[in-house]
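The authors assume throughout that readers already know how a fold can be written as discrete tokens. For illustration, here is how one protein appears when written out as sequence plus structure tokens:
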Amino acid sequence: MIPLWVQLAYLLAAICFILALKGLSGPKTARQGNIIGAVGATIATIAVFFQDEDGLDNVPLIIIAVLIGSVAGVVGAYKVQMVQMPQLVALFNGVGGGAASLVALLELNSITGFLDGLTSQGASNEVAEATPTMMLVFTVFTIFVGAVSFAGSCITFGKLQEILPTRPMVFPGLPFAFAGSFIVAVIFAVMLVDSPSMLLGILVALLGLAVGVLLVLPVGGADVPIVISLLNAFTGLTVAAGGYVLGNTLLLVAGTLVGASGTLLTILMARGMGRSVVNTLFGALKGGSTLGAGEASDRPVQSAGPEDVAVMLAYADRVIIVPGYGLAVAQAQHTLRELVEQLQARDIEVDYAIHPVAGRMPGHMNVLLAEAQVPYEQLKEMDDINGDFKDADVVLIVGANDVVNPAAKTTPGAPIYGMPILSADEAKKIVFMKRSMRPGFAGIENELLFDPKTTLLFGDAKDTMGKLLNAVKAQ
């Protein structure tokens, strides 16, 4: 029996998780929500040590593991740059799914050991009734889906870190390998529920790893962050199922929250890309996936130096900034904020246009600009600001590409066709800050770069932004 005060601690932790999720839904309350979630996790971790009245086994080993994890978390929080956050999220997600799968395997081992003991005593009726069917169903589900999430998250990490190619990785027979692995895993899972066996459990886990790899390999380019969100939902579901297996209500609540929010986020991100989730996962098999890395164009463009762009900005009445992944890579957000403050001091109206899938994960640009102390009221979502582009004298695009690519509206064969984009092409003048002429994460050329209204400012965003800031000050 779990002590009453431990049950109350779990209830408090569950409330913290719900409040944290609510806080994370907006940039103004995200920091507070993160703190509340951390407090809830701390309460839950401490309460676990007192859940069993007879005490936990292997407490020293558990404490050592907690300390190692805490050190790794603190070091990671300080060392990992904002541009690497999507990779970190993928790793955290994979660890969660892998842990859930391993715990379920250990529970299966306990179940099989208990049943073997009953069998050796000749208690056939007791064996048949000893383990409820639903307990085995949830155990098998956790083993398989947790393994899928772990393996898939490792592949997404490799793609984002560019250890693996960002383009879709397809080979002859991949659909058959995926379908075959999945079908065999389902067959083994049914057999495992009917007759619990550690060998079958391990086989289901291995097949889950194979399915996870084969699921993510064909995903390329800008579709990878959507898959991270989907795998996050998978991990949440495994944690919830694990909570049922372990009889832990808090795990059930936390996993359900993660699974539900991850599912909604996946749908919203896919909608932001103008794609269905199925097309995101399997589009490469029929040529419909974003492509990842592409070749730099050698077509002529109109370029200028910082001084020329400074003149354009200084004499504008309305400027809209479109931030993208290149801003995060260059860590130029602080210099950009200073530039905006200089323009506002000249009574120039300036806003930031935030696309829902800008960067490598949802909210990437919001967090990046919040880090630079950009006021929240200057951050405008796509639906709120798209009607303002036609009135903008200058649109300054910093490290973004796909989110302003007109191909989403004009080229039916393009992999991003149908994706809602920022209407930067409607502005009077367009300035692109780019390192090179290489395409964006979707791997396709942007015709906006060759528009007569467009001027390119080449160079590293941080260095070029500093020169542009000095040139504006000199006006």
About this structure: The mean pLDDT is 84. Residues 1-79 form one domain. The chain has three domains: 1-79, 83-286, 306-473. The longest helix spans residues 85-120.
